[in-house]
Specification:
The chain has five helices and six strands. By secondary structure, it is α+β, with helices and mostly antiparallel strands. Strands 1, 2, 3, 4, 5 and 6 form a six-stranded mixed beta sheet that branches.
């Protein structure tokens, strides 16, 4: 397991990208596919830890795509048996959220279950792929995150400002792919 992972709930901290995050994420994706694969369409490492060179909060984010979000009982049971804590619908109802912790309220992984091929699925994977290939926008997001942490904004304000930039980038990216 990667020792650089773990963030206390409510804390704002970003770390330089650790290449070990990608290896750990590949292992986690494989573990999820092996133990819960019959209940899902795909699992992808998403978020800032999936983008080499981009500072990130030290929590791995995963998107699990399913055909139907109505009946997640078996998938959720598999994931809780793997040590994930079921947190229900995530913020903004993007998807069902499960987390893995190394100690109470110190998270190392977020798993978002959502409809495969949905707008949110598309945004997660498109943003990741875009930031991997676009040095300028990766630098914009890096600089914003670093400035927000230096400014000691609240977690809510950090999330708000970061989301505004991500939404701006998505509008441009989606327009190119329309």
């Amino acid at each position: 397991k990667v020792t650089s992972l773990g963030l206390r709930k409510g804390e704002i901290r970003i770390c330089q990208h650790d290449p070990a995050w990608l290896l750990e994420a590949d292992q986690v994706c494989g573990e999820i596919r092996k133990l819960a694969g019959c209940y899902l369409v795909d699992v992808q490492h998403v978020g800032s830890t999936s983008v080499p060179g981009l500072p990130a909060k030290p929590i791995l984010d995963f998107a699990i795509g399913v055909d139907d979000t109505e009946d997640l009982g078996e998938l959720r049971s598999c994931l809780t048996a793997m040590g994930y804590l079921d947190r229900g619908l995530g913020a903004g109802s993007i998807g069902h959220l499960l987390v893995r912790e190394i100690e109470k309220d110190v998270r190392t992984q977020h798993v978002h279950i959502l409809e495969h091929g949905s707008e949110h699925w598309f945004h997660y994977t498109l943003m990741r792929d875009h930031l991997i290939s676009d040095d300028e926008n990766r630098a914009r997001l890096r600089d914003l995150k670093q400035e927000l942490v230096r400014s000691e904004v609240t977690r809510a304000e950090y999330q708000r400002q970061k989301s505004l930039l991500v939404q701006e980038l998505l509008l441009r990216i989606v327009g190119k792919h329309a």
